[in-house]
Predict the structure of TF-B3 domain-containing protein.
Amino acid sequence: MANASLLSPTNKHFFKPLLPGFQRNLNIPVKFFSEHIEGKHEGKTVKLRTDASKRTWEVKMDGNRLTEGWKEFVEAHDLRIRDFVVFRHEGDMVFHVTALGPSCCEIQYPQSISHEEGEESGEIEISEREVEENLQKEYDQSSADLNCFSQSVTHSNISNDLVTLPRDFAKRNGLDKGMHEIVLMNEEGKSWESEVRSRMSGQVFIVGGWKSLCSENKLKGGDSCTFKLLQNAKTPVFQLCSRIGESRFVKLTPTLNSLEIGKQHLPVSFTKGNGLIHPGEIILVDKDRVEWSMKLQVDNRGGMHIFGGNDWKSFCAANEVGGGESLTLELIRGGLSPLFKFFSKIEQPSFEAEDRRHKRARVHNGSQETDKGEPSRATKMGPELEKREKTAEKGEPSRASNKSSGKQGNLQKTQACSVTDHVAKVKESVVDTLTSIRRFQAELETMEQKLEDSLQEINKLS
DNA sequence: TTCGTTGAAAAGACGCTCAT
DNA sequence: ATGAGCGTCTTTTCAACGAA
């Protein structure tokens, strides 16, 4: 976005960090409101513009609060907790809005958010179709990540003109059986005809074209490259990507045991690919946008796992993911304090995987009767109980409410809760919320300082 | 050239011990 | 009781080799 006008002293600005609950409404800072709006434009609607769209968004203002229409604006721009929005007053209650991510950098939108026919600046209502498109966009993005695979280049695979295709990738894209013609393509669009073949052993290979592609693109032994499946039709195209193997999405399959001990391994390829190498605190955001603070630990081999104790189990329960089921998490922010968001539950784990897990459970713990007989504690947190808990948690979710429900793990106990228990839970809830707010405040202060520094530098440049 | 086999390495799961 | 750290065992993956 070209922000020349951002530098203009004639345009008044304010910025707002997006905190939990921001989706419903947004408060204009009192000082800004009293100086520029109060007594002049009260009760009017404000018009919001962004560089991401040619559309003007009309939002109702109740007092200093943006209400009706704000949610649509948020959804259309995929604004999230910890983002920042900078409002630039262009006069006559028109604001230009710039969205900044948690890194304090401007959020880049791939293309204009609204680009269909019927787009007029005066159009206010966001259509369901556009909301669906936003969701579809998000889905496509995740699919794109799932349609990528990384491969290391070796002297052997170059000399044999043959390279292994990761099993899960081949399976996911229906390439794990028989022979398939494919096209290998580099970033410039140059292509090489090739084939995908599978073996009795289950290994799947790309045969042919590999040597030429490596030669043409100066790939040599020890290099690593990422391919993206562009079309999974009759002739799939594998395009060489410049990115080296990172994916924002990670699929996890908590076992009953991992839920019990509160420990969940993260694939090394994912952690390394995203630069997650330091132990520390991580934040998981569940499907209700409730935050869960857990720990990221590293073992002596560099393997990483989430350690959350009961919180891990409760987090999975909050997302209706039980032992043996899979969920996908999206890495929103890496660094020293990574932030993950629950992305989706994967409904049907493969039978082989499930069978394998059962086999392991039996091998390692003969007394663990997961198939029948006395269920384990984790099994008690099954769908029925989860459903009841969910019903009880209707309304504004709070981390404490989830935590306490997770800790209960026993329906009878839930029903027998005394007034004292409720008071204790409410107290816990308040304390937790306060802790979250204080943490946010500390982070906000840091971010605010960074932002101000940036503005000062920009002003110097101007 | 194709394809089966093998062995090493990596990853995942689990459990034990110790500290708090 | 819970959390943290670490060791060990099992499973999976894949490069490399060699026979047909």
